[in-house]
């Protein structure tokens, strides 16, 4: 068995690469869309005019379309296989999508690749915050989960600079190189996660209490299984597990009952309005 790393900041720095993939995907189109090699290669009407406006809209929208589906199934995938494994699956899917995009011979191939990449983004961007919040103690939870958004902006910036560096190349390599470089962080993420622990809360849900305690000892106790923070976190997890077990028959309809409707409204519309501000369209 591979040794596990228990430093929370290292865990966060590696895990939020999953958020960085979202940033890479945003700039993978916006940094390329106005370049001559792209416009000439994917031109539909000749004279290097690029795809028609409605087709370009479809190319751009392919990523959020895939993200919608990925985010929809990410919870089921994560609950069945684990937080860490689901993020690794997302990293593999990202590599597959990036290969298809980088090798695109036509618009249809490009759209398929972007849908696959979007599917990966939906999984990773949904599960990385869950993974970090379940590992981190309350005192550090906010800053570690917030690093997800920071990583997205890093991903946007890095691929913009990579695209700028290849902009002087004549021919398809000008856009194929940045699209291929996207795979590098996903490969780092996949193999790096092999050295990180699984979520203790997920292990508890699977009734794997000994492994749960081992993770808490590694992350919160610095090797001391009797550390006060380890005992406190383990107690919190047990209480959560007992509560969920007692309310196992609760359905999603509970979210729309009077006592929960306001919370549901805040959570859903915070996400909706953050997208309707148009930032992702501009990027």
Structural overview:
The chain has 283 residues and is mainly α. Helix content is 76%, strand content 0%. The protein has 14 helices and no strands. Helix 2 packs antiparallel against helix 9 and helix 5 packs antiparallel against helix 6. The longest helix is centred in the N-terminal third of the chain and has 29 residues. The chain is elongated. The model has no long low-confidence stretch (mean pLDDT 89).
- The shape, in one word, is elongated
Task: Give the H and E element order.
Answer: HHHHHHHHHHHHHH
The secondary-structure class comes to: mainly alpha
- Spatial separation of the terminal alpha carbons: 42 Å
Compute the number of helices.
Answer: 14
Mean pLDDT: 89
How large is the share of residues in beta strands?
A: under 5%
Q: Can you summarize the main beta sheet?
A: none
Instruction: Count the E strands.
Output: 0
Computed Rg: 21 Å
Percent helix, as a range, is over 70%
List keywords for this structure.
0% strand; elongated; single chain; mainly alpha; 283 residues
Summary?
By secondary structure, this protein is mostly helical. Helices cover 76% and strands 0% of the residues.
Indicate the topology.
Layout: H1 8-15, H2 17-30, H3 36-41, H4 53-81, H5 83-102, H6 107-135, H7 138-166, H8 173-181, H9 183-193, H10 200-205, H11 209-219, H12 228-246, H13 258-276, H14 279-282
């Amino acid at each position: 068995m591979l040794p596990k790393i228990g430093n929370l900041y290292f865990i966060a720095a590696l895990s939020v690469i999953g958020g960085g993939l979202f940033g890479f995907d945003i700039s993978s189109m916006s940094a390329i869309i106005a370049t001559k090699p792209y416009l000439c290669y994917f031109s539909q009407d000749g004279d290097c005019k690029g795809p028609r406006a409605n087709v370009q809209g479809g190319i751009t929208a392919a990523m959020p379309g895939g993200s919608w589906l990925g985010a929809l199934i990410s919870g089921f995938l994560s609950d069945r296989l684990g937080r860490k494994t689901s993020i690794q699956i997302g990293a593999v899917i990202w590599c597959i999508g990036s290969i298809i995009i980088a090798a695109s011979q036509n618009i249809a191939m490009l759209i398929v690749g972007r849908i696959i990449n979007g599917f990966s983004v939906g999984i990773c961007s949904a599960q990385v915050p869950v993974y970090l919040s379940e590992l981190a103690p309350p005192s550090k939870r906010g800053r570690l989960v917030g690093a997800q958004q920071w990583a997205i902006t890093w991903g946007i910036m890095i691929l913009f600079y990579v695209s700028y560096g290849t902009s002087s190349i004549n021919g398809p390599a000008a856009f194929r190189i940045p699209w291929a470089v996207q795979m590098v962080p996903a490969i780092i993420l996949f193999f790096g996660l092999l050295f990180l622990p699984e979520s203790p809360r997920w292990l508890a849900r699977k009734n794997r209490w000994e492994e749960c305690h081992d993770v808490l000892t590694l992350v919160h106790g610095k090797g001391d299984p009797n550390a006060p923070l380890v005992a406190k976190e383990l107690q919190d997890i047990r209480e959560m597990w007992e509560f969920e077990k007692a309310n196992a028959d609760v359905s999603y309809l509970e979210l729309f009952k009077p006592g929960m409707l306001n919370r549901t409204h805040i959570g859903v519309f915070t996400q909706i309005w953050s997208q309707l501000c148009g930032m992702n369209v501009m990027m």
